[in-house]
Each structure stands twice: as structure tokens, then as C-alpha cells.
Queue: 2 jobs
Job 1
Amino acid sequence: SAYETVLVEKRDKVALIQLNRPKALNSINQQVIEDLNKAVLDANADNGIGAIVLTGSNRAFAAGADIKMMEPLSFSDTYMGGLFNDLENITKAKKPIIAAVNGFALGGGCELAMMCDFIYAGEKAKFGQPEITLGVLPGAGGTQRLTRSVGKSKAMEMCLTGNFIDAQEAKQIGLAAQVFPVDELVDRAVAVGQKIASFSKVAVALNKEAVNAAYETTLQLGLDYEKRLFYASFATKDQKEGMSAFREKRKPQFTDE
Ligand code: HXC
């Protein structure tokens, strides 16, 4: 692999990125952040790729930030160094990222999964924000994305107790979109990625951008934003192609223009 801590595999139109730091349950350090960002950036820039699947191992998606690395840090180390700021860079990708979570997604691991566009969970997955047990708090979206995703009561319970939830509960509260058997999870996520990759890349990116806008703004501004993007989609060749293919009862040939 071109990277120290991630493995990248191209499966047709999907880039499968696998966190690979098994000795520390894929816990996140600077190397992981660098490798992950580069792998996502490369996939995002690759015209042959239409979707990205991010996964870990069967035991752990990621067990959080690297606790042994963090232990000696001071306030000024973290503040001036912008600890974990760069992890957010993967959210800048135009192409959708599906998190395929087997095993532990804890702390920064749960936060990383929530930075992805949606989450599929394997039956044995465990999600949690155990930072409270370490005398800290989530630092990459655990108090913010989780609250927007599952509401205040559940997010508050998870952050204040550090308790883990299982895959079924994650699905029930809307954190995970679907649950699959452990051995099928990655293939199912890749198959959904292939489906997404069969559509116009521009339309996919517009859909992603519009849904993400719902996190940032009020309903009326979000509806206005959606309308702008919807109207903009009529400037694409793929809109003409998609609609003429419907009328002619044939498969569309999208060119991403
Ligand atoms: C560093 C970690 C680690 C972590 C596991 N390991 N999690 N090392 N940082 N976050 C290491 C262990 O030290 C051990 O190595 C090896 O991985 C296997 O873990 P075990 O604990 O022996 O496995 P097990 O008994 O199965 O327990 C699994 C576990 C537990 C429940 C996931 O490891 C655990 O609680 N990990 C910490 C989870 C956590 O608190 N995460 C939040 C971190 S704070 P050695 O060599 O010691 O045997 C955070 C802040 C986010 O994420 C900030 C923004 C990104």
C-alpha cells in the first residue's frame, strides 16, 4: 500500500478505504489523519471513482483518538496545534463517503463515521462517545453531529454516560441507515456505492451538498438553497440525458457534464 495506516482498493467505480492500524484498534493519530485525507483526496480526484466506502476491521472501525498519544499533551499543544482539525478535511470531498462500521466506533471513531455521508453497521458494531471516562469530551463532532443526528436526549445520554449502543439501536435512532451481517457489510456498502457511482457525478454531488445544507441552516434558507441547486442542475448535460432517456425508455449515459 502507498500508505502506512490505510489500505486502498479500487473496486470498479468505488474506492474502498480501510483503516489499518490493527495493534491499536485503528485508533487515530496524525499518521492516520494524513493517510486518510490523502486516500480520500485521491479518490475524490479520480474520474473513475463515483463513491467511497470507509471501513475498518471486523473488531474495530476505530476505537477513537490515540489515547497514548494524547495523554501528555497540554492545552496549548492541542489549541495551538489544532489537534484533530485536519480530520474534518474528509468532509470536503464532493463524492459521497459511506462508513461501513464493524466492531467498535468509539470517540473519534464514532465521530469519523458521522463525518461520512451515511453509516451502514455490521451486526456486531458498537458506537459510543466514551470521552467522559477519560476526563475529556468529544472533540470532532460527538456533541454536535450526534445531537443533530439522533436528538438531544440520546446524544446527551451517550456523552454523559459513555455507554456504547449496538447496531440495532444505532439504526433505531437513525445513526445507522441499515444493519447487515458482519461478513456481508463491506460488500453491501460497496454495492450501494456502485449504484450511486452509476448516476451523474454532478447530480450526486448536488444531492450531497443540498442534504448537508440542512445541517447548517434554517428551514426556509435551506429550501431556498435547495431550489438554487435544483435550478442549477438544469444547466447540466446530465439533466437533459436523464430526462430524454426516461422519455425514450432507455438507460441514461451520464457524462458528468
Ligand atoms: C490507543 C488503544 C485505543 C485508543 C484501544 N487501544 N483503543 N490505544 N488509543 N483509543 C489499544 C489498547 O491499548 C491495546 O493495546 C489494544 O488497542 C487492544 O485494546 P484492548 O483494550 O486490549 O481490547 P479490548 O479489551 O477488546 O477493549 C476494546 C475497547 C478498549 C473497549 C475498544 O480498547 C477501549 O475502551 N478503548 C478506548 C476507547 C476510547 O475511550 N475511545 C475514546 C478515545 S478519546 P495494548 O498495546 O495496550 O495491549 C477520543 C477523543 C476524540 O476519541 C477527539 C477527536 C478525534
Job 2
Amino acid sequence: LKAKYLDQIAAAADEAAIEEVRLAAVGKKGEISLKMRELGKMTPEERQVAGPALNALKDEINSALAAKKVALADAALEARLAGEWLDVTLPTRPRRTGTIHPISQVTEEVMAIFADMGFSVAEGPQIETDWYNFDALNIPGHHPARAEMDTFYMKSKGDERPPVLRTHTSPVQIRTLEKHGAPIRVIAPGRVYRADYDQTHTPMFNQVEGLAIGKDISMANLKWTLEEFLSAYFGKRVKTRFRASHFPFTEPSAEVDVQCKWEDGKVTVGEGDDWLEILGSGMVHPKVLQNAGIDPNEWQGFAFGIGIDRIAMLKYGIPDLRAFFDSDLRWLRHYGFAS
Ligand code: PHE
């Protein structure tokens, strides 16, 4: 009897099989239980022999059942662990993460450098009125600068003059002066638009305007500020060329070129015989101050407009400005601007 049940227990493959053996052996109607009930019919002598033997047998079967149960549970856990095993040292699948566009990176860098020089940040709308984009900046209706700027005009409402896509960030000069007055030291980065398209021009591009108005700000302060900015931005002193120029909203005016070299589809800053124009600047015209409600007899200062895309080209050695706005991931990855 004992061997029979121990064999069955050993052979049981799962909980259900064990339960079957238990019922057959020590369940209410199990073989051993029935035998125990027969003890009553035995003589005391017989019972003294059979009783302990049956009890011992029952105990032994019960503990074998319990041990087998534990063994089965262990095996099941083992199997599950083996099935769910993960190699955490395996390399992960390649995954692409988003990155910040180079123009945005440069804009942030420019803001940080000027912040160190005490310039705060101002903003203006990209759809601008004729007044802010032109007239207030001393560019009257017939002025050739309007044609030169290849302006995009919006549809006009009724007989009002049509709004324009701002052709430069200079209108922010007027808006900020109107709002905050003088003295002031701000930069205004943002998108500007001109109908123009070649290797160094795109119809949408980015500028950062600078404006510093005080009691005794001079052209020397302008030159120092720009040179300080350029060496901080390029990480080295780069040769610059201040060329006398003309803007209706500054007097005197200067354009600034940076020394560079174009070679093998790459542009390098700080060497070579080429010059790339990167900004316009000058002393704010008294009429502009007046138009913004500032007394030109009391206040004066400088303004500049830097081509953000131009200085980005120079920093990253990119010869064609248009690539910045193609959103071609292969190009962005090639220059390390995307992963
Ligand atoms: N607004 C001029 C341009 O877009 C640049 C400029 C800004 C010049 C401020 C002088 C002063 O060409």
C-alpha cells in the first residue's frame, strides 16, 4: 500500500494529479481512511498493532504529498523564470531622438552672449504694419529701400495700406522704445522675410536686432559690442571689416563683414581672402528716435541687425544657407544636427 501511493505521488505531474492521489489514499473515502474505520471492528490486540501502523502510513503519505506539492511549485517557478529571462546587457534597438535645429541653437547662444553684456530680449510681430516696418524707420513711401527689400505684401483690408511680412527686425526698435522708453539695451531675435533666393539668401531668414540707447553711447561702443560678441560667438578673434554704408534709420551706418574662405564645399571663418557680410549697424537716426517718442536731443545710441543664418553658416562651415530650411534629415544628421 505504501509503495503504491509513494510511486503514484512521485509520478504525479501536476497539482491535479496529486489531489487525485490524496483523495484515493487519505481522502474521506480513501483506501487508508476506510481501513482506519475498520479499526473499530478489530479486537483490541489487533487494533494495537494496526492502529499505529495505519497512522504512521497516513502521516508518511501526507508528508510525501506536501513535499511533492512544494517540489511542483518550485519547478513551476523555475520554468516561469526561465521563460521570462531578459538579457539586460543586450544593446538596445537604435532609436532616434529629436534635436534642436541649428538656427535655434545659434539664436539661444546669441541671446546668452548678449545677456552677459546686459541686453534683455524683446519681440515683435512677423506680420507688421507699413508704419513700423518702413515709415517709422525713416523709410518713406517713395524710398528705394522699399524696393530693395523685396517686400512681401499681405492683402489690404479696405483702403488701408497692406500689412507686410517684416523685412527686418528693426521695427522692434520702435515698438520697444514706445513701450519702455530710454535708456534701453535690448536684442530682438526673429524671423524676417524677403523675396530673394540664392546660396546666401532665403525668402525667410533670421535676424537679431540690437538696440542700445543712453545719454552718451557712441559708435565706439557699437564697435566694441560687436567685436566682443563675435569673438565670444566664434570662440576666437576673427577679422572684421567695418564698411561705411547707408541705412535710412542709422547715421552714420556701417556694414560688417567677417573674413572667411570658401573651399571644397566648406566655408571657414577667420582665414582666406573672402568676406561675408553678416550685419548692418549704425547710430540710430534722430528721426527714428522722434518717431518712437524719444527726444533725440537727450538720447542717442546704436542699433545693429545680425544675420543669424549667416553666422550659423560660418560657425558650422555650411556653404549653402538654403540647406538650413530644407528639413532634410540626412543633411541634418551629416552635420550632427540630428541623430
Ligand atoms: N535692418 C537692417 C537690414 O535688415 C540692418 C540694420 C539694423 C542696420 C539696425 C542698421 C541698424 O539690413
